[in-house]
Design goal:
The protein is an alpha+beta fold. The protein folds into 2 domains: 26-75 and 110-129 and 216-373, no CATH class; 79-108 and 130-212, Thrombin, subunit H (Beta Barrel), CATH 2.40.10.170. It has helices at residues 19-72, 279-282, 363-372; strands at residues 94-99, 102-107, 111-114, 123-128, 138-144, 147-150, 160-166, 169-180, 184-188, 199-205, 217-223, 228-233, 239-243, 245-254, 265-267, 285-295, 308-309, 315-316, 353-361. Strand 3 (111-114) and strand 4 (123-128) form a beta hairpin. It is elongated. The mean pLDDT is 85.
């Protein structure tokens, strides 16, 4: 038997990748991964920037709106006095009111700025009353002991603060009772200083039991160490109102005299315009200008904020308070290198900030000037 050699089939290489193909594939994968990581990191950075800017925008808008609204309501309603008994004649608007066995210090001036000094945040005190009919002026026709007869008692309720002025003499007390009658009779906690012919008005309820809608309030707005705008009402513990607030600067807008309503200069609450301000200077205040600096709470690896210099050469460690190119005085300085409680903050440049500014006229001061003119 003869054997025939087998022809078979040609040998084929085993399926799979060789070393060269594997290296090429790994290189392509690494390049793709690098591109994807760069895109994701860039997108995340942009998202944090946009989110942080939006947070600063929102926080600043809330803070400036709240301050503006409160300042617009500062005071005690409609003009209390005409030219006969102008408020400018009062030697002071600070009173000690005794009621219910307690004495309280009450200041009726609508707004007070407490300067923080050296670029640190100021505090703004807003005082306001909400009487039923907006502080309608009443005429005192008779005084007997602590009982006072007035032409009518419109806008007055039991527990209200009663403010009186006549010929340079002013007084403040609390209404204990309202027996009524004709003329209307009011029983006061004290009628000391009240006299026939005086002008009187009820300017809001007094005490913690009073309705919040009618209460006379003294609200102190300040920036807390945790970068929160807080409000303290009538001496109570501060309540957070807006987060992410890094600084607050305020100035008085003043007129040339007590009879003018036109603001001619802007001044800091320092020196003669500070805590020892005279009544004559107080009556020249017509408006308040406020700058709020909001901060993005996200710390950034790179430096994202720098110092700012205004046209009039005010240097701020942070954003400028406002453009002072057309002002009669340089804008206030802002120092974000220190915390609101004056501790060093070396990384302040690693946060983003936005500045907001508003000017608010004080209604009572403008009306009083017009009434006395």
């Amino acid at each position: 038997m003869r054997c025939v050699p087998s022809r078979g089939f040609p040998t084929r290489p085993a399926p799979g990748f060789g070393l060269a193909e594997l290296l090429v594939g790994m290189a392509i994968g690494l390049v793709t991964m690098l591109v994807v990581v760069q895109v994701v990191v860039g997108f995340d950075r942009q998202k944090r920037v946009a989110t942080g800017s939006a947070d600063a925008q929102t926080n600043g808008a809330i803070a400036i709106y709240m301050l503006q609204r409160q300042l617009q309501a500062a005071g005690y309603g409609l003009p209390l006095f005409g030219s006969k008994n102008p408020p400018h004649s009062c030697p002071s608007l600070r009173f000690t009111v005794a009621h219910g066995g307690k004495s309280s210090e009450i200041d009726l001036f609508p707004v007070e700025i407490r300067d923080g000094g050296d670029g640190l945040p100021d505090a703004v005190v807003v005082r306001a009353g909400a009487p039923s009919l907006g502080g309608v002026p009443l005429q005192v026709v008779n005084v007997s002991g602590n009982e006072v007869d007035v032409t009518n008692h419109l806008g007055c309720e039991k527990g209200d603060l009663a403010f009186m002025a006549r010929n340079g003499s002013c007084a403040l007390t609390v209404i204990d009772d309202m027996p009524g009658g004709s003329p209307s009779r009011l029983v006061l906690a004290s009628a000391s200083g009240f006299s026939n012919g005086a002008t009187m008005a009820c300017i809001g309820a007094w005490g913690k039991a009073a309705s919040p809608n009618r209460r006379w309030t003294e609200s102190v707005f300040a920036v807390a160490p945790d970068y929160t705008l807080t409000e303290s009402v009538n001496g109570a513990a501060p309540t957070p109102r807006a987060s992410g607030v890094a600084n607050l600067q305020a100035r008085y807008g003043i007129a040339d005299d007590a009879l003018s309503s036109r603001v001619t200069a802007w001044v800091d609450a320092t020196g003669r315009w500070g805590k020892d301000i005279t009544m004559a200077d107080r009556m020249r205040i017509r408006a308040v200008r406020i700058a709020v600096v909001a901060r993005d709470g996200q710390w950034q690896k790179d430096t994202v904020s720098n110092a700012c210099t205004t046209t009039r050469k005010t240097v701020s460690k942070g954003p400028c308070a406002w453009d002072d190119a057309h002002d009669d005085a340089p804008a206030p300085a802002i120092d974000l290198s220190r915390t609101p409680d004056n501790k060093e903050r070396a990384d302040w440049r690693h946060f983003r900030y936005r500045a907001f500014e508003v000017t608010v006229p004080l209604r009572n001061m403008i009306w009083a000037a017009g009434a006395a003119a």
